[in-house]
Design a protein that fits this description.
Blueprint: H1 2-9, H2 12-29, H3 40-58, H4 82-100, H5 104-114, H6 120-127, H7 131-149, H8 151-156
Length: 157
């Protein structure tokens, strides 16, 4: 969780603050969690991503983080124990394998949206593509990721 926040913000201190805010939000709103909408980890990561992007924009707009997705692996969170670290590493491998199987233009759009915090409009501007094209790439890429990281898809990876 703090690794994702640090990847988006590029600042360990700000990532720690976001992580604490997310933990407090989870504690306060745990009753609003809907298991039908996804796993608890997905909910918490979505909250983390949203909070980190909000913080990034509050600090003066988006700061483009560049570098391959593999660099996210090198960002230490300092919070996971051995068992949790192993589970995180397994999830990371699954997601990386799934991302690698996406069309390059879908992967690029998803990485810009989720790891750089860009909006669809900002991605369209960055890539010089029409907004509708970017939205379609992100949507199709996310649907494909859902297939790939789901129980049946994981077996194929």
């Amino acid at each position: 969780m703090s690794g994702l926040a640090e990847r988006i913000l590029g600042d360990p201190g700000a990532a720690e603050e976001v992580t604490i805010d997310v933990y407090l939000q989870v504690w306060r709103s745990a009753g609003s969690y809907d298991a039908g909408r996804g796993a608890p980890l997905a909910w918490i990561l979505t909250l983390t991503r949203s909070r980190a992007i909000d913080r990034l924009r509050a600090l003066g707009g988006h700061r483009r983080v560049t570098g391959p997705l593999e660099t996210a692996r090198a960002v230490p969170s300092g919070q996971a124990g051995p068992e949790e670290g192993s589970e995180d590493a397994q999830r990371r491998r699954i997601v990386q394998a799934a991302l690698a199987r996406l069309a390059p233009n879908q992967r690029q759009a998803i990485e810009l949206a989720f790891f750089s915090g860009l909006s669809h409009s900002e991605i369209a501007e960055e890539l010089g593509e029409p907004l509708g094209t970017v939205k379609t790439r992100v949507r199709l890429g996310m649907l494909r990721l859902r297939e790939l990281v789901g129980p049946a898809g994981r077996e194929a990876l």
